[in-house]
From TrEMBL:
PANTHER family: STEROL DESATURASE. This is Fatty acid hydroxylase domain-containing protein. It is found in: Membrane. The chain crosses the membrane at residues 21-38, 44-64, 85-105, 117-138, 175-205. It comes from Mycolicibacterium vanbaalenii. InterPro entries: Fatty_acid_hydroxylase, Sterol_Desaturase_Related. Keywords: Membrane, Transmembrane, Transmembrane helix. Residues 298-322 are annotated as: Disordered. GO terms for biological process: lipid biosynthetic process. Residues 122-255 form the Fatty acid hydroxylase domain. Its main location: membrane. The keyword Transmembrane applies.
Length: 322
């Protein structure tokens, strides 16, 4: 193959990835999950869809990387895979437990079973999005929650698997806030199963190291362009863009932030107050329970104030990560 042909092929692949990645994940794979579940397919097919989503994420991050350095291991790949395995297992277990929960806490059967299945799933996503967003915001304001949420914010590279790099206790609290209201009104297991997959796909997209294009949708959907601002390391500056699926609640809560001129790199990610946050999986499980697992704002006060001035933020870190 000539150099010209190779260049054209690469350019074509990049164009397809840039504009096709998000529709494929959001519409294609979630659509496949909807179709399989509605047809009564065994639930393990949803795991197959998840594997396809993860594989697609890794492939696209190499075709159109936002930052090529973020594709390289930093002694964190194995740890992140453990996070994914543990947290996905917990999500699957929670879905499997729904019939038991329904038996223990009888629901009033308010769920709209007569709605089209796709509408039921979309309604579940919107309700879960609100609950998860509220707990996410609270986790940046309440010290005991931040201790566990800090595990997620310790990352210094931004790629798909980061989405499920969470302390299992914090993930449990977040998911409970999102799903408990649904269970209390009779959430069906089939809807919960598709919702669980949608959450995983969304987290892959939201933390993706892919320079994809979504146009004006970036102001509404909680994808990577907006979520990078949430991972800025300075106290107070990252208190933005809390939504999991949408940015609707952030617009309403005035926590939305976006600057199209901003370029991110690893020096801006992580936690300025704790640059030496533990990197190993077991260490990250234990650290929130230790005296040092809280936060300290004093070392980052100057940096936070400077960053606030640069971005025009009115909060240089008076209440963040403490």
């Amino acid at each position: 193959m000539s150099t010209t042909s190779s260049t054209l092929t690469t350019t074509a692949a990049q164009a397809v990835a840039s504009y096709g990645y998000v529709p494929f994940m959001l519409i294609g794979l979630n659509g496949a999950a909807l179709a399989l579940t509605a047809a009564g397919a065994p639930k393990y097919w949803l795991l197959v869809v998840l594997v396809v989503a993860i594989a697609t994420s890794f492939l696209v991050e190499r075709i159109i990387p936002y930052d090529r350095d973020w594709n390289h291991d930093r002694a964190d790949t194995t740890r992140d895979r453990i996070h994914v395995a543990v947290n996905e297992t917990l999500i699957l277990a929670s879905v499997a437990a729904i019939p038991l929960l329904a038996a223990v806490v009888p629901a009033p059967q308010l769920w709209p079973h007569n709605w089209p299945f796709v509408v039921q799933v979309l309604a579940a996503i919107l309700i879960a999005d609100l609950g998860i967003t509220v707990v996410h915001l609270a986790s940046h304001k309440i010290g005991v929650l931040w201790r566990f949420h800090a595990v997620h914010h310790s990352i210094t590279r931004f790629y798909g698997l980061n989405g499920l790099m969470k302390h299992p206790l914090h993930q449990t609290v977040e998911m409970a806030a999102g799903v408990a209201p649904l269970i209390l009104i009779g959430l069906p297991v089939d809807v919960a199963s598709v919702l669980a997959l949608a959450v995983a796909i969304q987290l892959l997209l939201q933390h993706s190291n892919a320079d994809y294009r979504i146009g004006p949708a970036k102001y509404v959907l909680a994808l990577n362009e907006g979520h990078r601002f949430h991972h800025l390391k300075w106290a107070g500056i990252g208190d933005v863009n809390f939504g999991l699926f949408t940015l609707v609640w952030d617009h309403l809560l005035r926590t939305y932030s976006y600057d199209p001129t901003r370029r991110f790199d690893s020096t801006q990610l992580g936690m300025a107050a704790k640059p030496d946050y533990p990197n190993g999986y077991l260490q990250q499980m234990i650290y929130p329970f230790t005296p040092g697992g809280g936060c300290t704002l004093t070392p980052t006060a100057t940096a936070s104030t400077n960053e606030a001035q640069r971005t025009g933020s009115s909060d240089p870190g008076s209440k963040y990560r403490c």
